């Protein structure tokens, strides 16, 4: 196994039978509980790129599942379609998974009373439109020959179909087509202790992943060598915690210890923590969109406040693309920090010219053109008292297809704005993602079809400008983007894909989407 390890983790002992909510035990290399669908999705109702996964794990406290539920609640923004928790009580695994928000799925005392134990992992999911399926809710559980293992995964493997085909030829039986099940099958085919099997499995995969894994004795967290998706370590008393973002620690009174580093695996037992570096080191490339949009503003990522970073992007945007205007208005909620920074940098007043209704459920908005048109009105309304007669600078985090921008600009004009100048806190999105964001096709991305003048005309803005890629890097503390050694994953803007697109290059993309629809 390449790479150095700090220590050798103790061997997993045999595991007693698990509880009824989990799948029936299966022999090694047999079928496993099916995993969820596409890790990240594009929501056409809101014209946003959507984060679809949150992971959480805790070991070393009573009522671990209750702590996990609170942590998942804080991570609700990363996935609202379904949620699940698997706990371990020292004797058996217990699980509850269902569609819905965390507060609904885990509101019943009877449910929480069944999730006993001092260790638990959890997951939030945001499924593709129309493809919700209860059997696809994580964490996944498999009964391997060494005992049970539960996995929650945030990311996307770019060689999942290639590996799947190889595993099928070896006799594996798949119940779904998604990448998390591939990891479990690779572990089932591997040898050695559970942690060594996980390493062997991950050495075969290509792509982006941050995952937590629970065995009878261990909580494991691992981040891919590029560090595409975030994963952080926290502590509360004697308990150690893993989560997608640090905001999950605040809600349970835990403290942020540090980020899990790219390519690092941490193994947590009731005796302490061990750190492993089993993968070949590469230049880390964390996803830029975590800073622009995905992460919650009150999270800390790589030592940087997300809120302050977005304000810095807004200040850079004001420096690069000033507007002759009276007022700065954010497109809520994600545009607020950048709008604060823009207002500060431009010396203009900030106000809430658009009010968001936070109580519109996603299931209310069906994916038809007519309802998409109404969907923006359901979620946003122009504040006439603020906008009437004003020259307005609208600040948004991104433009994807542009359909929402069209409606927002129209709404602001109908509320009486004299001029509408759109400023965007990310560069134009011209290229699709294969690392966990289910973006529209390149032809559907507005910036891939027209320049800024054409886009301004399309959304009916008096002017339109984006922060430059160098400006975005400067807001993150870099002197600019080094084209020979870029610090972040920025393929949305550049078309550069540093992690090989194995399945895409092999022509498996269309087949993958078809299989996902069938699995749904």
From TrEMBL:
Q: Which PROSITE patterns match?
A: GATASE_TYPE_2 (PS51278)
Which biological processes are named by the entry's GO terms?
'de novo' IMP biosynthetic process; purine nucleobase biosynthetic process
Gene3D superfamilies in the cross-refs: 3.40.50.2020, Glutamine Phosphoribosylpyrophosphate, subunit 1, domain 1 (3.60.20.10)
Please list the cofactors this protein needs: Mg(2+)
Does the keyword section mention Transmembrane helix?
no
Name residues in a coiled coil. none
Briefly state the protein's biological role: Catalyzes the formation of phosphoribosylamine from phosphoribosylpyrophosphate (PRPP) and glutamine.
Co-factor remark: Binds 1 Mg(2+) ion per subunit.
Where the record annotates domain Glutamine amidotransferase type-2, the positions are 53-271
GO MF annotations, alphabetized? amidophosphoribosyltransferase activity; magnesium ion binding
- Superkingdom of source: Bacteria
- Could you tell me which pathway this protein works in? Purine metabolism; IMP biosynthesis via de novo pathway; N(1)-(5-phospho-D-ribosyl)glycinamide from 5-phospho-alpha-D-ribose 1-diphosphate: step 1/2
Q: Which PANTHER family match?
A: AMIDOPHOSPHORIBOSYLTRANSFERASE
Cite the entry's keywords alphabetically: Glutamine amidotransferase, Glycosyltransferase, Magnesium, Metal-binding, Purine biosynthesis, Transferase
What is the protein name given in its UniProt record? Answer: Amidophosphoribosyltransferase
UniProt lists the family membership as follows: In the C-terminal section; belongs to the purine/pyrimidine phosphoribosyltransferase family.
Q: Where Mg(2+) is bound, by residue?
A: 334, 396-397
EC number(s) per entry = 2.4.2.14
Which one Pfam family would you cite for this protein? GATase_7
- Catalytic residues, per the record, are 53
Residue ranges, annotated region (Disordered)? 1-37
Q: Which reaction does it catalyse?
A: 5-phospho-beta-D-ribosylamine + L-glutamate + diphosphate = 5-phospho-alpha-D-ribose 1-diphosphate + L-glutamine + H2O
Looking up NCBIfam families in the UniProt record yields:
purF
Q: Which InterPro entries match?
A: GATase_2_dom, Ntn_hydrolases_N, PRTase-like, PRTase_dom, PurF, PurF_N
């Amino acid at each position: 196994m390449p790479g150095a390890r700090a220590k050798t983790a103790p061997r997993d002992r045999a595991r007693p039978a698990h509880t009824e909510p989990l799948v029936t035990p299966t022999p090694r290399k047999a079928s496993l509980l099916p995993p969820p669908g596409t890790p990240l999705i594009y929501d056409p109702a809101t014209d946003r790129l959507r984060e679809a996964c949150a992971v959480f794990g805790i070991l070393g406290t009573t009522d671990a599942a209750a702590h996990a539920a609170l942590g998942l609640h804080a991570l609700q923004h990363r996935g609202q379609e379904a949620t699940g928790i698997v706990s371990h009580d020292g004797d058996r695994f217990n699980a509850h998974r269902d569609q819905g928000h965390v507060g609904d799925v885990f509101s019943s005392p009877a449910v929480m009373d069944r999730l006993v134990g001092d260790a638990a992992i959890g997951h939030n999911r945001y499924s593709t439109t129309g493809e919700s399926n209860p059997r696809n809710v994580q964490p996944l559980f498999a009964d391997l020959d060494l005992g049970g293992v539960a996995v929650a995964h945030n990311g996307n493997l770019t060689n999942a179909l290639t590996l799947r085909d190889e595993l099928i030829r070896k006799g594996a039986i798949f119940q779904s087509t998604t990448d998390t099940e591939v990891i479990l099958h690779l572990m089932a085919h591997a040898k050695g202790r559970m942690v060594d099997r996980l390493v062997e499995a991950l050495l075969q995969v290509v792509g982006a992943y941050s995952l937590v894994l629970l065995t009878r004795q261990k909580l494991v967290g691992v981040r891919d060598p590029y560090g595409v998706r975030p994963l952080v370590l926290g502590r509360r008393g004697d308990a150690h915690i893993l989560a997608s973002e640090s905001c999950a620690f605040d809600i349970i009174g835990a403290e942020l210890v540090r980020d899990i580093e790219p390519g690092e695996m941490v193994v947590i037992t009731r005796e302490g923590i061990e750190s492993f570096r089993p993968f070949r080191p590469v230049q880390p490339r964390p996803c830029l969109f975590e800073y622009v949009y995905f992460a919650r503003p009150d999270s800390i990522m790589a030592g940087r406040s997300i809120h302050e970073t977005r304000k810095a992007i807004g200040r850079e945007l004001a420096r690069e693309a000033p507007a002759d205007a009276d007022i700065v208005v954010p497109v809520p909620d994600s545009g607020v920090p950048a709008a604060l920074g823009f207002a500060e940098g431009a010396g203009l007043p900030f106000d809430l010219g658009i009010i968001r209704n936070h109580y519109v459920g996603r299931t209310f908005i069906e994916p038809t053109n007519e309802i998409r048109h109404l969907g923006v009105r359901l979620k946003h309304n122009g504040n006439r008292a603020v906008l009437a007669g004003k020259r307005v600078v609208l600040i948004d985090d991104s433009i994807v297809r542009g359909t929402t921008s069209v409606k927002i600009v129209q709404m602001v004009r109908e509320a009486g704005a004299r001029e509408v100048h759109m400023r965007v806190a990310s560069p134009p999105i011209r290229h699709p993602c294969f690392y966990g964001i289910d973006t529209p096709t390149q032809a559907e991305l507005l910036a891939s079809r027209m320049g800024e003048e054409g886009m301004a005309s399309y959304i009916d803005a008096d002017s339109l400008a984006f922060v430059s890629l160098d400006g975005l890097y400067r807001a993150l503390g870099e002197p600019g983007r080094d084209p020979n050694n870029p610090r972040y994953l920025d393929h949305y803007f550049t078309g550069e894909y540093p992690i090989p697109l194995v399945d895409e290059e092999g022509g498996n993309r269309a087949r993958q989407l078809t299989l996902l629809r069938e699995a749904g």
